[in-house]
Fold Two-component system response regulator.
Amino acid sequence: MDTYNILIVDDESDFRTLLVEALESMGYLCEGAETAEVALDMARTRHFAIIFTDLNMPGGLSGLDLLQAIQEIDPKTFCILMTGYATTDSAIQALKSGAYDFIQKPFKLAELDASLQRALNHYKALRQNEAYQSGLEERVAERTREVVKLKDDIEKLFEGFVQAAVFAIEARDPSTSGHSNRVATLTVGLAEAVNRTPTGSYGPLHFNENQVKELRYASLLHDFGKVGVREQVLVKARKLEPERLERILQRIYQRDLEAVARRLEEAWKRSEAYEEGCFEIVMAAHRAESQRIADLVLRCNEPKLLTQEVVDSMDELEELSFLHWNGAVTKVLEPTDIAALRIPRGSLSKAERDEINSHVDKTYRFLKQIPWTGTLADVPGIAYAHHERLNGMGYPRALKSEAIPPQSKLMAICDVYDALVAADRPYKVAVTVPRSLEILEDEARAGLLDGEALGIFLEARVFDLTMNQIKAEPERA
């Protein structure tokens, strides 16, 4: 049998004692109190499941007063009123005041026990329900903690995946090390600056926390498609690959040897005696011309803008020949070499430039494979448009301003800026920050970049966010 504390409150000592002893004999833990004040003191120190109290007690608090006070001290206690002067009104008043039951004196012990059983059954049901609710709340809380931890673990896992992807990009193209993280820092900084801008076309636009996170991931992964581009194209610093250039210079040197050999052969056929230093003298005469040709090749091989003078001089390169080991007369520069050297600016041919540009499509196809959650669903689309330009001159889809997501417009500014100031790319020299900002303004005026977003970029000095990360060098003439 479960044990519950029961309190009998009655100013009649004999009656009180009788009830206490009777209930104790029935297996209950029971105590008595002669006044409502004493009962309240006892209720403040321990919990009573059931309190039986006389309704009318002289010289102090009544049973109704006790009932109301108990509700404040310990609302879980069930109170049953006992009185010898019961009326319908008093019973109704007692029940309205919170009494569980009402017993009229004199009563038989069986009536008391029946009332007690009803009260205890209700009391136990409530306590069991409370225990269930408490257990349920704890289980829900525990499950919530598990879900939150799982969410945190997934976010950490995904963050690690993103950083691993950035590592893969930079391992593929070490010359752009740090670019993805810097672009993400700048783009998030520009988005936050947009949030602080109340006017203009960007005034109504506000990026919430999830949208900023979405923009950060898109920025970090915007170049991931480069893992699908050939490494020799990604890191191509000159128009000719080193082994191709070495082959051409070796052939030019071989032409000198062939010319010297012919001169010496002709001299011997004329029965001229060999003179000390003759070979060096003849070789030096040819080396001066060969060095001029080699210098022209080296000059054309640089990714700088070709002058018309250099372009006109290149015709003679097509006619150079040497004797192949198999006896055939062969061109020093093959057609592919000539085509590469004739690239007017930069180091990439059109096919190579197209291959580089294809990294945007590859990025989009890669990002579309990831089951992004609803708050990150636009990551692929934002990254897909970061090389689009407002006037439709961008790639890969030649989108115009209205079709380009605003996030992509912000990223475009940050991407171009970082590419300009970066000093670790083998195919270009770093541009100073002031000059880079001027170039950005020129591109905005030309309809390539968003002028209003660039204004926010400049006004908020977003470029300061990566100033200590770039290895910018003084601009060279």
Summary: The chain is about 55% helix and 5% strand. Residues 472-477 have pLDDT under 50 and may be disordered. Residues 386 and 408 are 5 Å apart (CA to CA).
